[in-house]
Design a protein that fits this description.
It contains 10 helices and 10 strands. With 264 residues, the chain is of the alpha/beta class. A hairpin with a 2-residue loop joins strand 4 and strand 5. 42% of the residues are buried.
């Protein structure tokens, strides 16, 4: 997976860039699309260097939260900070430090995997003398070396997911935002992805991952349960289950959503 030289360099970069601010901060954030309120006074703090999961059903606000953090959606009210920078007013400074993998791979189908990665590396400001190595390291990390010169349109769905993740990682971001990255991938690839996320977090990357799959939640260091644009609970999987009085994480989610969790 990730080579050791990349991890050492990435860790040094993270240590130098860290200013003590959380990875993400949302304070009273509201965002509506017409009559639909996607985020409803949302408050959330995501620490750095952790795998932080957003768990909730479709329509709970997960994707809007991520898009708001990236400056792709402007909040109607409230404050958003990413790596200590207010968004979207300082998105030009923040975005080169962020990697984003949307639900549907945003790749150029007629270009090869290598060409897509070279494009994203250049777009995110990777210096020309480091670009080739960055592309090769990203390709190695997702095990696509044998398909590097194939057009993306010829790849299977799972391979496109791999290529999309490589493009999100090619500039060695401090924050990696992954919007349901394992949808449509087989169990073996899902395990590889999560192993990679753990390696990245150990090297100092803040990994923000959204999901509606309960069995992935236990792999996160911390979780936020989302429902109807609000955070209903935050904590590690074990603690959330214990505090809810439910037998498992799915039961805990339902208990917090209904406001019937056990009192402390």
């Amino acid at each position: 997976m990730l080579d050791r030289c990349w991890i050492r360099e990435h860790t040094v970069c993270m240590d130098a860039a860290s200013d003590g601010a959380p990875g993400l901060e949302f304070r009273g954030v509201r965002k509506s699309y017409g009559a639909i309120r996607a985020l409803d006074g949302l408050d959330l703090v995501v620490p750095r260097g952790r795998i932080f999961g957003l768990l909730g059903p479709n329509g709970s606000g997960k994707s809007t939260l991520i898009r708001t953090a990236l400056g792709l959606a402007r909040p109607d009210s409230g404050d958003v900070r990413v790596l200590g920078l207010p968004m979207p007013s300082r998105s030009r400074e923040a975005l080169p430090r962020i990697g984003y993998m949307p639900q549907s791979p945003a790749l150029y189908g007629e270009l090869s995997v290598r060409e897509n990665l070279s494009f994203f590396a250049a777009a995110f400001g990777v210096p020309r003398d480091r670009r080739r190595r960055a592309v090769e390291a990203a390709i190695d990390s997702v095990e696509l070396t044998g398909r590097i010169d194939d057009p993306v349109r010829d790849l299977s769905g799972g391979m496109r997911q791999r290529a999309s993740l490589a493009c999100a990682m090619v500039h060695e971001p401090e924050l990696l935002a992954l919007d349901e990255p394992t949808v449509g991938v087989d169990p073996e690839l899902r395990l590889r992805f999560w192993t990679m996320f753990r390696t990245l977090a150990a090297a100092g990357t803040t990994v923000l991952v959204s999901s509606h799959v309960m069995d992935e939640a236990s792999r996160c260091d911390e979780l936020a349960f989302l429902r109807a644009g609000r955070v209903t609970a935050v904590g590690d999987a074990r603690g959330l289950v214990e505090r809810s009085g439910a037998p498992d994480l799915e039961g805990a989610f339902l208990a917090y959503a209904a406001g019937t969790e056990a009192s402390s």
